[in-house]
Each structure stands twice: as C-alpha cells, then as structure tokens.
C-alpha cells in the first residue's frame, strides 16, 4: 500500500493482480483474469476477492475509515489476456462483442509491438480506435467503478508510453460513470510541458519525473522539472471535472524488491552527507551475530535477529555515522 499526503487515500499497486510467484514481477502469464480478460485481484493474496468480488469488500472497509480508495492500473491489455485470446465483453448486451458478423477477441485488439516500456512482458497497448477496443475499456472501467473506486492511476500511458487515444477515451468513460473520481497518469519519463498541455484537461494528475531511488542526481532534477511546469502555468490548471496538477510522485525510499521476495535494508543519513545506500537483507544479516533461519507462520524462511544485538548495531551506526536503519518487508 502507498499513502499519499494531503489526500486521505488508500492506494493499491498494480501488482496486486500478480500471483505471488518466485521471480521477476515483469513475468509473463502470472495475472489473474476473468473470462473477458479483465484483471482481478489474486484471491490468495486478497481472500475477500474470491468469487470475482474484486476489491469491493476492501473499498467498503476503506470507506468505513473515511479514506478514499484507489488502484494503480496498467494501460492497454494484459499479455495474459492476449495469449489466452479471451473474448471482449459488450456490456450493452452482456455477451461477447460482435461487429460485422465477427466475435472479437483479445488478439484482435492487442498491439504486441507497443509493449509497456517498463513491464514489457505483462502489458501491451490496444487499438482504441476499434469498436472492440472501446468495448474492452468500457467493460473494464464499469467493473472497477462498481468496486467503489475514488482514484485511478493509469500507467504505461503517458511520458515515454504516451497514448492520447486511450487517455481520451478512459477520461470520457470516467466522467460518465463517476464524475468525482480522480484520474492520474504515469509514467513521467520523457514527459514534457507541451505533452502535459494536451492531456491536462482530461485528467487530474500526471507524472512528470522518473522514479527516485538511491541517486541524489535523480532528486535534484525534480527541482528543474517543477520550475518548468510552474512556468508553463500547469499547476492547478483545468482538469477533469476540476483541476489538474503535475505529479512529482514518489519519495526516495531506496530500492525495494519484487513483492514478497526479499527484504531490503536501507541506511538513510541524518547528517549533511549526501549519500544513501541499500542492499539485500541477506547480505547484512549474514554479517551480524545472533542470526538464525526460522520458518514464518506462512511457511516462508525468514531471518531472526537477536533484538539486543540489532539495537547495539543501530546505536553504534547512529553514533558513528548519523544513520538510521529502516527495514522494508515489501
């Protein structure tokens, strides 16, 4: 989960649809799709979604806490749906989409030559100009809106993956189905103010930078980007059912692993030294005394450290280097 400041929002990443398998998150054929090729949460990771209930129960719980609920989606269509060649749902008839005497399937609308830049094995663009392409997107967002979404972050559709046709049509669908929804775009790599001026009226947020990890040069560039978008008068400009904003997005919390695979340790300086370091938990724990390998409640092997020893290490590091230790189990 990822919590955004200023807006009380519970935000789930796109990998919630991936089954928790060993290996890279950019894998092929590990998504959970229904008979119409639409992505659903993995029921093993989200038990309340069993029976194709999606995130409805999660959204209801989040709303009970006076929070907003959103999900991070990937544009186009999943490789899983394309490989399975699932039929396209026509929500007007409740049956497979037909046009010119033909029943349309995923391979009729998917564009393998336009794969998502950073998740090339998982998602590809689709032909939004076709009736079947539009039908797929409409069925997708009618489903997701029925779960109770307040926020949609659509990835692989902006910056280096720009797809004006999909942005325009999804904006149209969201405006029709739920005018109050917040619509956000990503990624920000190669985004420009001129590009933003074409889409800002269709959305509420759009990424304008790449990810921040463990290089201060990546942080520094954000200041120039923020300056340029402010100069272009894009901050608070016209947007979907309101205003829109350039999105500098994530904070530099250090490299994290693929979900459920490893634990990372990151040291963050509290003094004026401009350095951050991160490495795998295994590498550090093997160098510390008092370690042992144990089985977690879910059967996974985890490292257990003597708390006193770990506290001694932390105290020594902070005293000597002005550093704090953060452990992320991602």
UniProtKB/TrEMBL annotation:
Its EC number is 3.2.1.22. GO terms for molecular function: alpha-galactosidase activity. GO terms for biological process: carbohydrate metabolic process. Keywords: Glycosidase, Hydrolase, Signal. Residues 261-327 form the Alpha galactosidase C-terminal domain. Residues 1-23 form the signal peptide. It holds the Pfam family Melibiase_C. It catalyses: Hydrolysis of terminal, non-reducing alpha-D-galactose residues in alpha-D-galactosides, including galactose oligosaccharides, galactomannans and galactolipids. Belongs to the glycosyl hydrolase 27 family. This is alpha-galactosidase.
């Amino acid at each position: 989960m990822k919590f955004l400041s200023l807006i009380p929002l519970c935000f789930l990443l796109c990998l919630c649809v991936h089954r928790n398998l060993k290996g890279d998150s950019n894998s092929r054929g590990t998504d959970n799709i229904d008979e119409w090729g639409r992505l659903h949460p993995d029921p093993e990771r989200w038990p309340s979604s069993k029976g194709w209930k999606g995130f409805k129960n999660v959204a209801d719980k989040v709303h009970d806490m006076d929070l907003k609920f959103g999900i991070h989606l990937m544009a186009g269509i999943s490789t899983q749906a394309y490989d399975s060649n699932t039929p396209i749902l026509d929500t007007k008839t409740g049956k497979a989409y037909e046009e010119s005497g033909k029943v349309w399937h995923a391979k009729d609308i998917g564009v393998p030559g336009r794969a998502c830049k950073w998740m090339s094995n998982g998602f590809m663009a689709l032909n939004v100009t076709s009736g079947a392409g539009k039908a797929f997107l409409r069925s997708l967002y009618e489903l997701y809106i029925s779960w109770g979404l307040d926020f949609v972050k659509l990835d692989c559709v902006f910056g280096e993956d720009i797809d004006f046709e999909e942005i325009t049509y999804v904006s149209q669908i969201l405006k029709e189905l739920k005018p109050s929804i917040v619509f956000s775009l990503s990624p920000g790599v190669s985004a420009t103010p001129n590009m933003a001026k074409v889409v800002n009226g269709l959305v509420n947020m759009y990424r304008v930078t790449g990810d921040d990890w463990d290089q201060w040069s990546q942080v520094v560039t954000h200041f120039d980007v923020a300056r340029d978008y402010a100069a272009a008068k894009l901050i608070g400009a016209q947007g979907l059912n309101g205003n829109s904003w350039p999105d500098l997005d994530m904070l530099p919390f250090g490299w994290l692993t693929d979900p459920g695979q490893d634990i990372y340790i990151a040291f963050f300086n509290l003094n004026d030294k401009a350095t951050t370091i991160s490495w795998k938990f295994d590498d550090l724990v093997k160098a510390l005394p008092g370690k042992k390998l144990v089985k977690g409640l879910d059967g996974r092997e985890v490292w257990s450290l003597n708390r006193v020893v770990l506290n001694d290490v932390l105290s020594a590091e902070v005293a000597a280097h002005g550093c704090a230790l953060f452990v992320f189990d991602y």
